[in-house]
Structure formats: C-alpha cells, structure tokens
Amino acid sequence: MLADPPAAPGSEQAPSAPAGPGAPAPEPSAHNCSECGSPLQPGQDWCLQCGTGAPDSLRSRTPSWRSAAAILSTLVLLIAGAATAAYAALSKPGGKSSPVTTVAQVTPPVSSTPVVPPASETPPTATGKIGTPTTIKPLPLTPVKAPKIQAITPVPKTIKATPLPTGTGQGKTTPKAGNEGPAIAGEANAEALLLDTNAASTYNPYNYTPANFGDPSLAIDGDNSTGWTAVVEPTVAPKMAEGVLIDLNTARKIAVMGLSTTTPGLTVQVYGANAAAPPGSITDPAWVALTPSRVVNKKHVRLKLGTSTPASKGAHRFIVLWLSAAPASAVGTPQAPGRVSVNEIALFLRKK
C-alpha cells in the first residue's frame, strides 16, 4: 500500500534499453515536501522535518488523528468547566440578589381653587341620543351651607294617674254620691302624681323565683284591665312576702294611694323610705309604716297615708305596697298555684 501507484495505461514508456557497459547510472528524481519544502528522496513517504506525508502517500490522504484528538480533548475540558461553574453558582448559600431601584413618582399638587373656564370659551357638548348633541351648562359655584341639626331632647314618657273610684279610707269620711264608697275628707283637691314608666319594680327581698311575678310597669300604666301579678306559694299560703316598689326619684310627700285589684281580700300595708336605695328587708328600720296592715275587700280603694306617726307625714322617695296575705280564693294547689293581681296604683301629693 505504501508503494507508488501503478502508471496509467498507455502512459507506460517502453523500457529503456539497458545501458551499455560504461554508461552512467540515471540520477534519482527528487521532489519536495508540500508543507515545509524540504527535499524528499525517492520512495520517502514522510517528511523528516514536519511529518507531513509525501504526495500520493497514505498520510497525505488521511487526516491526522492527532489533530482530531486535540480538538475533542479541548471540547471536553470546556464542557466540564462550564458544568463545574454552574454547580458552584447554584450551591453557593446566601447569594445576594441584585438590588432593585424604586423610582418614586411625584404627583403634581392639585389646586383647591376650582377652575372656572373663561366666558369666551365654548362649553363642551355631550351627545345624549345618537346624532343629537346636548350642551352641558357649567354649574354655578355656590358655597354650600351645612344643614342645621336641631338637638332633640328625649322626653320621659309619663303616665297620668287615673282617678279611682273612692272606697273605704282611714279617718273622717264624707259620703260622695255616685261612687262605690265614701271619699276621704279633705282629698278633693289632692294632686295626682305623674310617674315614669320605669318607676315601678317588684320588691322581692326574700328572693322568690323571678318567674313568679308579672310586669310591674302594668301596675302604673293607667289601665285597670292590666296589672302586676304574683304567685301564691303553696308551701306558705296564704302568707305572702312581696310587693310593688315605686321610685319617685326625689323625696315627695304623698297623701293618698289609690289601689285597684281583681283579687279583693288581699292584706296590704304601705311603707315609705327616704334613702339612696330601697332597704333590703321590709323589717329594716329605714322603712316607715304609712298605713296600718289592712284587708282590702273591694276592687277599688283609696288608702290615706301618714296617719300612724309624725315621720309618716314626711317626704319619702320610695313607696312600697306590701302584700302579707292572699285571699282564700287565690290559694291554689301545688300543681296549680294561685295568683293575686295589683291592677293599678295611683299616688296623690299632700296639699301644701
């Protein structure tokens, strides 16, 4: 394979005649390296200076494997270096992020003075219906005054005491035609006291069950068909120990109490106290008896107050109608306890 290729057909030269004896031998043909120009001897396939193959040799036809190996090695080194650098960048802790620059936007100041267009300018137009221009007239700049708000003062609801038919009272009496009983002497000019709707409450010093009692405001609402009720405890019946308390908010001199009930036969007594709070027990010395204990046998009676002691004629802030016994008709059974009712209480001031 390293031999020179055969000559092309037809190009063969006739063999030269053997030289005769004494003829000079032919000089070998010389050729040069294609790379460095060094002379090559006949039959030399490699340049001894640069290693390039001689023309028509195997080395000159095949690319050098050393060049390919060098290129491949360089490519492998570049790839390995890039991979190492990427791994180091990703695994490095606490990498700093590039700072972000925020550009503050400045809002131009807005003038509080309204802009009024010159009179010479044409007002803008807006289109209402299709094809029909509508002229918008500028509104006049008129200062707006704040509306006045009138303070509303809450007025406490008061209930005017309804005059009750006269009944049996204490002291001297004078017959009065057309009523159920005689009227109390000197009572004709007594002034009815107006009570707030929340003036009445249940006086329950012995802590009976609150469910045993009705709404105490119904005892001062001016309606005889409604009233405060109380259960008669079967275990102590006919005894009772509760009542209706009225707070006058200030000390007043009360002359008469009008009482209406749908359960006549109640044993009642009226007490008064002038203190910052109602006494905690009916036996408290702060309570002053304004009437003796008595049985109310009619549905409508008037009780004259302040007949027992001089202190009972004084001014009192708290007035209590105390119930001490129920009528036999109101005593029920343990399964169905009875009830008593105080339908209306009216107070009349003492004349000055």
Shape type: rod-shaped
Order of helices and strands: EEHHEEEEEEEEEEEEEEEEEE
The strand count comes to: 20
End-to-end distance, in Å?
159 Å
User: Into which percentage range does the β-strand content fall?
Assistant: 15-25%
Structure description:
It contains two helices and 20 strands. By secondary structure, the chain is mainly beta. The strands form seven sheets. Strands 10, 12, 14, 15, 16 and 18 form a six-stranded antiparallel beta sheet that branches. The chain has a four-stranded antiparallel beta sheet with strand order 8-20-13-17, with no helix packed on it. A hairpin with a 5-residue loop joins β3 and β4 (133-135). The longest helix has 27 residues, at 65-91. It is rod-shaped. The termini are far apart. Residues 7-23, 25-29 and 155-186 have low confidence and may be disordered.
What's the quick description here?
This protein has 352 residues and is mainly beta.
Descriptors:
352 residues; mainly beta; 6-stranded antiparallel sheet; 4-stranded antiparallel sheet; 20 strands; rod-shaped
Secondary structure: elements and pairs:
Elements: E1 31-32, E2 39-40, H1 58-61, H2 65-91, E3 125-127, E4 133-135, E5 158-159, E6 173-174, E7 183-184, E8 191-192, E9 195-196, E10 200-203, E11 228-231, E12 239-252, E13 254-260, E14 266-273, E15 288-289, E16 294-296, E17 300-304, E18 316-325, E19 339-342, E20 344-349
Antiparallel strand pairs: 1-2, 3-4, 5-9, 6-7, 8-20, 10-12, 11-19, 12-18, 13-17, 13-20, 14-15, 14-16, 14-18
